[in-house]
Amino acid sequence: MSTLTIPDPLPTPEEDSQKLNKAFKGWGTDEKSIIEILGHRTAAQRREIRDAYARLFNQTLVDSLRSELSGDFGRAVVLWALDPAERDAILAHEVLKKKGYRHMCVIVEIACASPPDHLISVRQAYSSLFNSSLEEDIIDYSTGHHSLTQLLVRLVSSYRYDGMYLNEDLVDSDADDLYNAIKMGQQEPPIGLINILSTRSIHHLKASFHRYQQKANGKSIYEDIEGNKNYDHELKSIMKCVVCCIASPEKHFVEVVRNSIVGLGTDEDSLTRAIVTRAEIDLKNIKEEYKIRYKTTVNADVIGDTSGDYKNFLLTLVGSAEP
Amino acid sequence: MSTLTIPDPLPTPEEDSQKLNKAFKGWGTDEKSIIEILGHRTAAQRREIRDAYARLFNQTLVDSLRSELSGDFGRAVVLWALDPAERDAILAHEVLKKKGYRHMCVIVEIACASPPDHLISVRQAYSSLFNSSLEEDIIDYSTGHHSLTQLLVRLVSSYRYDGMYLNEDLVDSDADDLYNAIKMGQQEPPIGLINILSTRSIHHLKASFHRYQQKANGKSIYEDIEGNKNYDHELKSIMKCVVCCIASPEKHFVEVVRNSIVGLGTDEDSLTRAIVTRAEIDLKNIKEEYKIRYKTTVNADVIGDTSGDYKNFLLTLVGSAEP
Prior knowledge:
2 copies of one chain form a homodimer. By secondary structure, the first copy, chain A, is mostly helical.
């Protein structure tokens, strides 16, 4: 569920655009107004504002934001102002410029913690923004970890059935296959395991993971991946990310937020990504889960670790401290 | 280019629907009117007729056609009346009920001889019609030919970049990789070859195939696959289909039409598929290519091998004998 609050009555997209343009003008930028407007509009409303702004000022809103704002605040607002599919395409492209598979979890989030039609829109946006397909860029990124590359390519290429129909026999045999594949002690995940994780519906996979746990005397597939001594660190971390994004995206994002806060310094990119991408999806559930798990609130941790406009913007998206 | 001819002035979708409904009523079905109307309407116009028909008669046009028509004629008209993405989803589903990989070329056509956005629409239609993803059904179909299954899954999962940007270095290195992979003498196509064929843009692949031929002293990739003694018959036939659908779909469909005609009996399903699915895409080019290659026309071969309403309907879609 979304954490956004929308004003009533709602200004027209033209009024919002005028106010935003005014906020960009003059001696300093009026960050407060930008937060006040964009932080309280849904994706559909932001699209209407983008359209109106381009009509009125002959420039895109995102370009204006990019030139007026900077730092973590600027990055967060720009990501928020973008069309969600374009935003995810840009996040995926950024990851493919970084070194190290550990960043690839961002791509897993897009592939496994989003509805199938959103993933398709991301691939379409990626292709028109970057003149290549997301999957070929993943392959070209490959630095030798072939099975990991294949897993990622197959996950981003999926268009899973999105309904509730379930074939119980298939759930059962997939649970067996997953169990055998993970227990088999191979260094690489066999193709059968990749096939299952990348083509079955989320509803089906959740049922298979549940069935897995029954077969494994209470041990979850997540724990078995964690305990698998044959998988290297990178494979293990991506496989855990896959399973978590499929089984329970909110639990995955609880970890993303928490890990961005704890330790030395704040990982602003991860914190921004989690809050911006999930605000309209399940941030309410993430906040509840966070409170149960860490006995503190997302709000309190954001306040403790960030400051200024960046803090104010994140808190606007996060909404009230009491769920 | 399309072979369709559209009347001017064009009747409204409501008028067409009324006439179609009248054609279904009374003692016999008026096949001539059905051909006269539907055979002269574009996909967009047929969609409007479907919408109007459903509004006016509280029944879908496709259901009416299915209950009124039968045989090869009925099958052809129903396929023609369907939304093109839904039609291809149904064709793919039919193939996955048949025995033998030789039928899989239908799936390759959908994956490699259609624009990326059409392939996505087919997958969406497949998922809503059949409660599963196209790719999982291909995997579940697998009867042991794993590399062929992987190739097919990867091809249907592709969302290729559809523009004209070309990276010449990549074209060159892909040509090398294709050459080495096919010349290497393995029984299975290596994953690198599958990666290239399933993720690169059609424009890029055409350039790579051209470069391949230069490297191979004039031998085409098609000929090298044909001459590869390590590939079994099924793999060879599907790989040739892939390369042909990418390099030159019209040449592929020239063969589909010709093979459906020559020999004992007519393969009506293939003939129907080629004409119905390509009429609005490249049937004009297919006809020209056919004439050059076989010194006869598609029209003459259709007249020679089919009869009655089926013949009349196909000829309506094929258009004039002189291109």
